[in-house]
Amino acid sequence: MPLLWFILWLSVEILGFAQKDCPDEKRLEAAGLVDVQTVDPSILVDLKYSTTDNFVKQDVYGCITRCFLQKETAEKLAQANRLLREQYPHLRLLVYDGARSRAVQRKLWAALPQYAPKLRENYVANPDEGSIHNYGCAVDLTVANTKGDEPLDMGTGYDFFGDLAYPRKEAQMLKAGRLTKRQVDNRRILRGVMQKAGFEPITSEWWHFNALSRKQAARRYGIIE
Ligand SMILES: [Zn+2]
Questions:
Q1: Rounded CA gap, 137 and 209, in Å?
Q2: Cα gap 118→123, rounded to integer Å
């Protein structure tokens, strides 16, 4: 038995070391970005591009499993989570993506060749211009129960490509019966706390929020290549 415990202990140590030693995470930390869960451990994270449960069906993040953001953006997010908890003690923010390198942005862009560049920009920012995610100042997220296994029904999943995901078409979709009042109300819970904390929503994705404009982000931070 003691040998078995030793082997178990050793595996945990080795795994722990491997996780701490992710060079891509180290690079983000060296660039001044912070792990959002070190700012607020009650924020839930399910980094979709670090799994195969995403629109490219590939793990494009490799060893990156934690969500990084610029410190100011992470602090705003913690504020949004505080506001959410005050209003709805049984709910938490569940983050799908934060800082994303331009190299990953290129992979996402290349994964949608069926859309002409103009239309494609509705779904994925052009890597030549750079997404606000590439500065660590944008976040993709939803709202879930405290365990994170029951996200609220927002009418579509994350990275749904189509007008059902467009906040600008919610009224129209509600009228046409393609979204329910509950789904729109759930999106409003998310938008409400995010806007109060200083984030700007966008008109084409219910899950995406910017802490700064692209211009402000570019002035203050470099692109993570
Ligand atoms: Zn986004």
A1: 9
A2: 10
- The CA 131 to ligand 1 mean position distance, Å, reads 8
Separation of 158 CA from ligand 1 center, angstroms?
10
Spatial distance between the Cα atoms of 44 and 147, rounded to a whole number of angstroms? 8
Query: pLDDT of 38-78, one tens digit each?
Result: 999 999 999 999 999 999 999 999 999 999 999 999 999 99
User: What is the CATH topology of the domain spanning 23-220?
Assistant: Muramoyl-pentapeptide Carboxypeptidase; domain 2 (3.30.1380)
Task: Report the C-alpha gap between 134 and 99 in whole angstroms.
Answer: 6
Q: What pLDDT is recorded for position 119? A: 87
Beta-strand (E) ranges in the chain?
34-35, 44-45, 68-69, 91-97, 138-145, 200-201, 208-210
Per domain, the residue ranges of the chain are 23-220
Backbone φ and ψ for 106, nearest 5 degrees, come out as -65, -40
Per-residue pLDDT reduced to its tens digit, 179-210: 999 999 999 999 999 999 999 999 999 999 99
Q: Check: CB of residue 69 under 8 Å from CB of residue 34.
A: yes
CA of 4 to the centre of ligand 1 (A): 45
What is the Å distance from ligand 1's center to 202 Cα? 9
> How much distance in Å is there from the Cα of 206 to the middle of ligand 1?
9
Helix (H, G, I), strand (E, B) or coil at 34: strand
Q: How far is the CA of 223 from the centre of ligand 1 (A)?
A: 15
pLDDT confidence bin for 4, thresholds 50/70/90: low
